[in-house]
Design goal:
alpha+beta; NADH Oxidase; binds flavin mononucleotide; globular; 5-stranded mixed β-sheet; 5-stranded antiparallel β-sheet
Length: 246
């Protein structure tokens, strides 16, 4: 995953696409990368459908949307976030624009034993749709969500993770070489609380993807024990990491 580090500084949500279409070669790369994504939970089956954006309720002028379906189970939405963020970063490396689209809806949410999880728009875009530095980025400082962080470089990378409505629901508490990653609940209007319940679980997978890319690119050896996607409590333990050295 460490090869994705370059894209972390470059990616941003692309909501304006060009008229140009993906070449067959680009389409094949985009499609085949879906089969190379590293899962967080290997036991959960995840499937994809690429459809013309015009056949969805996505309001962007993208050429395509990717529909993501998954088996349900503990951390299934977190797993989807973890997997598809790798794809988002890979497409940024190809100069192809992507936007997570939580507002997406499909007619049939259930497909046999799989459940619709989320959609992402994608297509060609201008080169200036990407970031060329992190100056203009609107995110919390790492110290606002990661207490006891022993390595500022990690914090500087993971703070760039995207999240629904830029809600950044992650909190990290570190003591020596161990840290817990939590999903912080609440702080959103009641009306949208139901939507956030789903999106913030995807956000946590995105964050873990950024974390793993950061740890690998900084040369850390580490182990991870996964927690839960439960809706109990204000703060939910998603994962515990132990750094085992470099
Ligand atoms: C799970 C998820 C759902 C999202 N849903 C939408 C959406 O429905 N519409 C939209 O315009 N952006 C959506 N976004 C994009 C976020 O608003 C965006 O990632 C965030 O504001 C950070 O900006 P950046 O991606 O440009 O860095 C979504 C992002 C995530 C992670």
């Amino acid at each position: 995953m460490k090869e994705l580090i370059e894209s972390i500084r470059k990616r941003r949500s692309v909501r304006r696409y060009s008229e140009e279409k993906l070449s067959q070669e680009e389409y094949d790369k985009v499609e085949s990368y879906l089969h190379r994504l590293k899962p967080l939970i290997p036991d959960l089956r995840v499937e994809f459908q690429i459809v013309p954006c015009s056949e969805t309720n996505c309001k962007f002028n993208a050429e395509y949307c990717l529909l993501v379906y998954s088996e349900e189970g503990n951390l299934w939405l977190t797993n989807v976030g973890y997997m598809l963020e790798q794809w988002d970063l890979y497409l940024a490396s190809l100069g192809i624009g992507v936007c997570w689209y939580g507002m997406g809806k499909v007619e049939e949410e259930r497909q046999c034993d799989l459940m619709y999880a989320i959609m992402l728009s994608f297509g060609k875009c201008d080169a200036d749709a990407f970031r060329n530095g992190t100056d203009d980025i609107n995110r919390k400082a790492a110290s606002d969500f990661w207490t006891g962080c022993g390595d500022e470089r990690l914090g500087e990378i993971v703070r760039l993770a995207p999240s629904a409505v830029n809600s950044q629901p992650w909190r990290v508490e570190q003591v020596e070489n161990k840290f817990n990653v939590y999903r912080q609940k609440g702080g959103v209007p009641l009306l949208s609380a139901q939507l956030f319940k789903r999106w913030n679980k995807v956000d946590m997978g995105i964050f873990l993807c950024f974390l793993d890319v950061a740890l690998e690119s900084e040369g850390y050896r580490y182990s991870r024990v996964l927690g839960t996607e439960s809706d109990e409590g204000k703060r939910v333990l998603v994962a515990t990491y132990t750094l085992e050295g470099k």
